[in-house]
């Protein structure tokens, strides 16, 4: 919708001058009278010229693509044209350029267009990170030469959804591959409480949730009920969404690397018809996706645009909560993290006493300094049993190489 803006200061000054001229001489004649009429007609003339210019004013926008890929440069071209035979189009344009980390800006336009004159501006916009970008005109205003009146045209901006890269994996590292193949022939982790198999004697550290009370009363020793487990020959993926610093370019690049690792693994297993679930929680909301075939990838991929890194919720807490609530069923679990948290890394320890459960940790080292990387290597040297279940990804370009090692 077009809006008209009146410069109240300029009109007020005109009215004041009109009053002074009138009081200076109640009866004007000759040249003074015609000068008074001209002064009186200034607002009408300004409005007429502006209306004529705005009626024949055109603008055209062009984007080289509607679906930019991450890292792609997009050309944005704006053409302003005064098709009127009259001069008087003074144009001001402000742009909206919004995206992750506010990494770019578009310089505004303030110019006068003569009759039948055009102006073209071209901008190159990069989309370096996953996320939602808004680009285009925020305000377009055409005013008269004296800035007494102005028309604001209705304008729009374009919203772009930039998704993470899809890294195609031909295989995954051997320990993970062996675990997936083994679980495909075995059972899952969740007990089916309709399939009672027997009793076993209580051991220190066991949960007493399924204590056989009648047997305990009769024998004087605690026994636990055992059940058959559900069949879930799949993989559970957990993404670490913790963020403790402001989201600058280095942080956004690291977080995109974690997302792309998750996407690569999810896509790999779906293409091989391995049931896979992905989980993440940031303290404000959860993200859960499941699929068992290539057709399920599109929905998951589009949903990654809404995965937000924030808060301090550890994936260890999410995983343990899921096991308790029977959300996690597979015996193969992969955690993708950018934080080398000992509690998290110890999930992968083969001597952790988790039975059939196999946990693997992919550590995203993107953006980490050499001192931090050495600390992680030293920790791993002290726990050699973790080596087969930990994978380090040093940078986004190394995702394929690291996961296929």
Molecular structure report:
By secondary structure, this protein is of the alpha+beta class. The protein has helices spanning 8-24, 30-55, 174-185, 213-219, 249-271, 297-303, 315-324, 342-345, 370-382, 399-403; strands spanning 3-6, 57-63, 73-82, 89-98, 109-113, 117-126, 131-143, 149-153, 157-162, 191-201, 223-229, 235-239, 276-281, 286-291, 332-337, 358-364, 390-393. Strands 1, 4, 5, 7, 8 and 9 form a 6-stranded antiparallel β-sheet that branches. It has a 6-stranded mixed β-sheet with strand order 14-13-12-15-16-17, sandwiched between helices. A hairpin with a 4-residue loop joins strand 13 and strand 14 (286-291). The longest helix has 26 residues, at 30-55. The model is unreliable at 185-196 (pLDDT under 50).
What is the structure about, briefly put?
The chain has 405 residues and is α+β, with helices and mostly antiparallel strands. Helix content is 31%, strand content 30%.
Average pLDDT, to the nearest integer?
80
Radius of gyration, in Å, reads 34 Å
Q: Largest sheet, if any?
A: 6 strands, antiparallel
> What proportion of the residues form beta strands (DSSP E)?
25-35%
Shape: elongated
Query: So what's the oligomer here?
Result: single chain
Element-level helix/strand string: EHHEEEEEEEEHEHEEHEEHHEHEHEH
Structural class: alpha+beta
* Head-to-tail CA distance between termini: 59 Å
The portion of residues assigned to helices is 25-40%
Poorly predicted parts: 185-196
Number of helices: 10
How many β-strand runs?
A: 17
């Amino acid at each position: 919708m077009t809006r008209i803006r009146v410069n109240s200061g300029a009109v007020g000054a005109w009215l004041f001058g009109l009053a002074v001229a009138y009081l200076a001489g109640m009866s004007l004649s000759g040249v003074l009278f015609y000068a008074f009429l001209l002064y009186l007609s200034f607002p009408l003339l300004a409005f007429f010229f502006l209306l004529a210019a705005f009626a024949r004013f055109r603008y055209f926008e062009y984007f080289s693509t509607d679906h930019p890929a991450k890292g792609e440069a997009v050309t944005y071209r704006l053409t302003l044209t005064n098709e009127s035979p009259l001069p008087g189009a003074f144009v001001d344009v402000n742009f909206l350029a919004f995206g992750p980390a506010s990494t770019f800006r578009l310089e505004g336009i303030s110019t006068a267009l003569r009759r039948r004159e055009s102006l073209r501006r071209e901008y190159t916009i990069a989309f370096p990170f996953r996320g939602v970008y808004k680009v285009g005109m925020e305000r377009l205003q055409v005013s008269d030469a004296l800035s007494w009146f102005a028309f604001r045209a209705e304008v729009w901006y374009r919203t772009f959804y930039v998704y993470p890269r899809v890294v195609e994996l031909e295989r995954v590292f051997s320990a993970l591959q062996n675990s997936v193949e083994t679980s495909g022939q075995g059972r899952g982790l969740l007990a089916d409480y309709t399939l009672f198999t027997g009793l076993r004697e209580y051991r220190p550290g066991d949960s007493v949730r399924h204590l056989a009370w009648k047997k305990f009363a009769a024998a004087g020793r605690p026994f636990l009920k055992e059940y058959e487990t559900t069949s879930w020959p799949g993989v559970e993926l957990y993404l670490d969404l913790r963020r403790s610093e402001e989201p600058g370019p280095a942080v956004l690049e690291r977080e995109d690397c974690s997302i792309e690792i998750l996407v690569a693994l999810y896509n790999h297993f779906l293409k091989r018809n391995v049931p896979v679930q992905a989980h993440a929680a940031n303290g404000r909301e959860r993200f859960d996706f499941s699929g068992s075939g290539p057709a399920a990838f599109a929905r998951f991929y589009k949903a990654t645009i809404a995965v937000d890194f924030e808060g301090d919720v550890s994936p260890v807490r999410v995983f343990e909560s899921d096991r308790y609530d029977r959300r996690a069923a597979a015996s193969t679990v992969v955690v993708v993290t950018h934080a080398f948290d000992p509690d998290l890394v110890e999930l992968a320890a083969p001597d952790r006493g988790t039975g059939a459960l196999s946990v693997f940790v992919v550590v995203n080292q993107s953006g980490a300094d050499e001192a931090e990387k050495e600390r992680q290597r030293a920790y791993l040297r002290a726990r050699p049993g973790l080596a087969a279940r930990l994978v380090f990804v040093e940078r986004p370009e190394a995702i394929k190489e690291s996961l296929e090692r």
